[in-house]
Design goal:
about 140 residues; alpha/beta; 5-stranded parallel sheet; globular
């Protein structure tokens, strides 16, 4: 099972590493850390840099797509290349998941219409706006 874990500057480490720890306990898992471009990204607390070996162009499909939250999510909501990638990968996933404000990216990609969704309480208005004003 291929898991694409998307990381970006100012993601929340717990939102990425906690689920990754659990998901990698499943049998036959390949976890791919994916960023917009391969390289180093910094979490929102600037504690530990994370190296993403893969860029979105290198990962066109996955069984699971996981998008963590973080203070950098808002910077990505208008990134059409990234949102196109999220839609592309989602089309073939068994599960598309987000943690906290990662749901904003799913909403901006048009993937949450008619779906229950949650986010950090302070980002609820932004999630609502994404749900109202975006389409795939």
């Amino acid at each position: 099972m291929r898991i694409a874990l998307f990381v970006y500057d100012r993601f929340t480490m717990l939102d990425a590493i906690g689920p990754a720890e659990v998901l990698t306990l499943l049998p036959d898992v390949e976890l791919m850390l994916v960023a917009k471009e391969p390289g180093t990204v910094w979490p929102d607390n600037r504690a530990i840099p994370v190296v993403a070996p893969y860029g979105i162009a290198q990962v066109p499909a996955a069984d699971i797509l996981l998008i963590p939250g973080g203070t950098g999510t808002g910077d990505l909501l208008g990134d059409t290349a990234l949102l196109d990638w999220v839609r592309q990968v989602h089309a073939g996933t068994r599960h598309t998941l987000s943690v906290c404000t990662g749901s904003l990216l799913l909403a901006a990609a048009g993937l949450l219409e008619g779906q229950p969704a949650c986010t950090h309480w302070a980002a609820r208005p932004q999630l609502q706006a994404c749900l109202l004003y975006t389409s795939p």
